[in-house]
Amino acid sequence: MFEELKNRPADSLLALIKAFQADERAGKIDLGVGVYRDAMGRTPVMRAVKAAEQFLLETQDSKKYLGPEGDLQFVRLLQPIVFGKSPTFGQRLVGIQTPGGSGALRLGAELIQTANPTAKVLLGTPSWPNHAPIFGSARLAVKEYPFLDLTSQQVKFESVIEALSSADPGDVVLLHGCCHNPTGIDFTTEEWRQIAELLVARKLMPFIDLAYQGLGDGLEHDAAPTRMILETVDEALIAYSCDKNFGLYRERVGALYAMARTADDIGKAESNMAALARVNWSMPPDHGAAIVRTILESAEMSAMWRAELEEMCERVNGNRAALAAAAPDLAFISRQRGLFSNLAMSRETAAALRARHGIYMADSGRMNLAGMQPADAGAIITALRAEGCL
Ligand code: PMP
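^ inputs. structure came back:
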């Protein structure tokens, strides 16, 4: 049987990790893999997470099954952080714990496939490389449209308007809630408002991917577009990841929320989400969600977490400011948000940056701003100039 399979290309970011480790040059800089790094280049376990793990170690008295919905107290406690304290749409939301934001996207895709198999998913590109395959493997048609121009680092808003205006009622629009991956370019408030209007006018359903809340301009600010959209539309899906803002990556912590029109629809969405979870992973892994729940149940641990997340956010924005200050042609980097910016470059140039200068970024030109120190700005800019990127 297996001879029928075709080999798949290796993950180029994982190859980048190995190449960086093997590089013996002292001044090498890793802007490759998409995880937060502190000033020492580490991706530490957050202090609040350690405190919650300690608490769980001492107090958890059973590991019996919870069910396909996972830890519903985790799902409920996350709600005010994502959607605000008492949103008007709050009564119309239902959520389920998922294995990371990826699990939430997959479950949402299957829910769409179950409810409306002919729906197309509109995806602005470039996007996170896993978006199109996740929707495609749930047998949904993905319609890509150019979201922005990398050379000018500007959103092609007319292309967004055109894509939404020519979509069919019931189609789904994938939107990055904040901190766009891979570009760091988010819509302006006015652009979000126009998108909300078009979603209503064209009867389209937003599927908001919120994977970096708190890593752009703070928890409240980063959630504002999501909340505005939910105040405007009737139905929506939200894939949430706690893997970045709690630093829980490998624990796989996320949630899928659905906002429905009526109590009857909420019940249907809920039972279908649970049934789809059951055939995919039966039940989500508990530990990471239990950590987040424990933090959110404790005022003290929550304060620790918020302070640490703010530190992370400030560090990334400080690196953005350092690059922009050192090269006026990179001023756009200080206006972008989240871990990533994506320079327009060929894969040959990305390879030359590695080989000649020890600066590692994805072949696409995506760089992780958490991978540098402010003092590295000069070396990065010298290398970019030498390779003709500036
Ligand atoms: N959406 C986006 C935009 C992402 O960048 C990522 C992770 N890189 C995810 C979703 C998935 O997150 P998780 O690791 O929680 O599955």
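The domain at 65-297 is CATH 3.40.640.10 (Aspartate Aminotransferase; domain 2). The pocket of 4'-deoxy-4'-aminopyridoxal-5'-phosphate is lined by residues 34, 100-102, 128, 176, 181, 209, 211, 241, 243, 254 (CB under 6 Å).
thumbs up if we can close this ticket
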